[in-house]
Q: What sequence folds into this?
């Protein structure tokens, strides 16, 4: 079975500080992609960052970076210099290569406080 | 360019009724996927269509059906509605099918079954 676990239902961080969101997953497949999506109150899922499982180098996108530990099946998201606009639900997900569906976690609600 | 458009944005139906949700993908995108997001959970895969053919089906009852039209827009139909069908229904479009393509989500249709 393919599962994604986000153990932090809600987190808070002060503006300009750094926060790390945790994610673990389980799959017997060896080729897959990992994602972090942001869902603000507008409800649209917005891609934050993507990591190919075959790449050892951690992906970065501006203030967002990941810590990918394949053996531990861990994929955490670090947000640096947090901004008020980062307030949203964050979902960890993966997609098995050449398959067509995302497996999502239950999400972490992030509150950035001024 | 217009993003993924879903209609209606909100809908209230009575148990036992039928509902049709609509999705227009980004221009040029040939694949549409449907996800159900129950309150407090991550999205769950329902269907994917590519070039008007079903390419994947999630673990949902036969009351759920979908189709894709020649212009690549899609409809999701749910028959004999249950209270548990209350959820946000998300549509995602992509150029193709599989992990090589980026997926863009719409803002969803909020379905309430009373």
A:
């Amino acid at each position: 079975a393919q599962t994604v676990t986000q153990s932090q239902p809600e987190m808070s961080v002060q503006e300009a500080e750094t926060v790390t969101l945790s994610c673990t997953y389980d799959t017997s497949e060896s080729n897959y992609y990992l994602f972090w999506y942001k869902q603000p109150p507008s409800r649209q899922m917005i891609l934050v960052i993507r990591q190919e499982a075959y790449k050892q180098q951690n992906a970065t996108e501006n203030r967002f970076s990941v810590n990918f530990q394949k053996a531990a099946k861990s994929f955490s998201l670090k947000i640096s210099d947090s901004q008020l606009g980062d307030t949203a639900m964050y979902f960890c997900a993966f997609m098995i290569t050449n398959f067509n569906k995302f497996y999502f976690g239950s999400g972490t609600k992030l509150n950035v406080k001024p | 360019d217009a993003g993924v458009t879903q209609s209606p944005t909100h809908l209230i139906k009575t148990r036992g009724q039928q509902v049709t949700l609509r999705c227009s993908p980004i221009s040029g995108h040939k694949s549409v996927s449907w996800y159900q997001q129950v309150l407090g959970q991550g999205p769950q895969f329902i269907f994917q269509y590519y070039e008007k053919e079903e390419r994947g089906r999630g673990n949902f009852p036969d009351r759920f059906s979908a189709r894709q039209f020649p212009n690549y827009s899609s409809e999701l139909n749910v028959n004999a509605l249950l209270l548990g069908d209350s959820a946000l229904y998300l549509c995602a479009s992509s150029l193709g099918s599989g992990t090589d393509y980026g997926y863009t989500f719409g803002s969803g249709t909020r379905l309430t079954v009373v």
Summary: Residues 62 and 82 of chain B are 13 Å apart (CA to CA). The longest strand of chain B covers residues 87-94. The interface with chain A takes residues 3, 31, 33, 35, 40-45, 48, 50, 55-56, 58, 88, 90, 92, 97-99, 102-103, 105-108, 110 of chain B (CB under 8 Å). Chain B has a mean pLDDT of 94.
